[in-house]
Amino acid sequence: MHDHKFTDAAAVRSFVLGGNALFTVRSEATGTRFTYKVRASEPDTSGTRKSAGVFFVSLLSGSSNEEDFSYLGIIPKDDPLTFRLTVKSRAGEQAQSVVAFRWFWKQIMAGRLPGSMSVWHEGRCGRCGRTLTVPESIASGFGPECIQHV
Ligand SMILES: [Zn+2]
Question: Residues 56-65: pLDDT tens digits?
Answer without folding.
Answer: 999 998 766 5
